[in-house]
Amino acid sequence: MEPILSTEIMTGLKRMGNPTLVNDELFAKSLHCGVTTITQTDFTTGNLSSIASGLSKGDVVKEGHCALLSLFVESARLDLLPDTLSVFLSSKANWPQTRCRLLTDAYVSSAPKIQARLASVGMHPPHVVNVHWNLNHNIKSSSNEHTASSMVSVQLETEDPSHVKEERMVKFVCSLPELQDMLSKLKEALRQVEHIAHLGNV
After folding, report:
1. Fewer C-beta within 10 Å: the chain N or C terminus?
2. Where is the COMM domain positioned along the sequence (predicted)?
3. How far is CA 39 from the centre of its chain?
């Protein structure tokens, strides 16, 4: 198993691993900045700006910073082994072995913290437990024109499954056509889910 990253992220990784674009000192600073950004809640990205400012390749550093964060998160999510990550970087991003080793060392020391941060985000969206709605009519009249429109006020009462006592109201207003469009999309999504579930039981 290896990280699945977008083309843009892979481009950023390739540039970050290229010694002609990012020298060793800048690479070490960027790596430290990436690890600190993702593991410390009170860290500000101002340090990245100080690293990248005044450089002719400042955009490369910023792009590489984003790519490093994505790589760390995806690798920690998959709980990758350091050897797997090293092979991925050398074969798919053309990193030299010295940089692969520096990154995997940083990954090993920071992976537990990243996984703890990911766990705190939560994996379950709130459940909708009740719906309240009102149909409101807006009427405008004058001597020359008469217009009328209907709007629907919807309140979704949600409950976080990880915190059962925590309730939240999601409120929005839409027109009748917009509400019908949303309902048709929900029905289509339900049909798709039921179809997939049926295929899984076959």
Report:
1. C
2. 127-197
3. 16
In the three-class reduction of DSSP (H, G, I as helix; E, B as strand; rest coil), residue 195 is classed as helix
Instruction: Report d(CA 88, CA 65) in Å as an integer.
Output: 18
Express as a percent the part of the chain with pLDDT over 70.
Answer: 78
Q: What is the pLDDT of residue 194?
A: 86
Q: Is 166 helix (H, G, I), strand (E, B) or coil?
A: strand
3-state secondary structure of 80: coil
In this prediction, residue 65 has a pLDDT band, given cuts at 50, 70 and 90, of confident
pLDDT in tens, 29-53: 888 888 888 887 665 554 666 665 5
Residue 6 half-sphere exposure toward CB, CA atoms < 13 A: 9
Q: Report CA-CA distances (Å) from 40 to 37, 43, 44, 78, 83.
A: 6, 5, 9, 21, 25
Element (H, E) at 129: strand 127-141
Question: Which residue pairs from 48-54 have beta carbons closer than 8 angstroms and sit at least 24 positions apart in sequence?
Answer: 51/26
pTM here is 0.58
* pLDDT computed for residue 161 by the predictor: 62
CA atoms within 13 A on the CB side of 181: 5
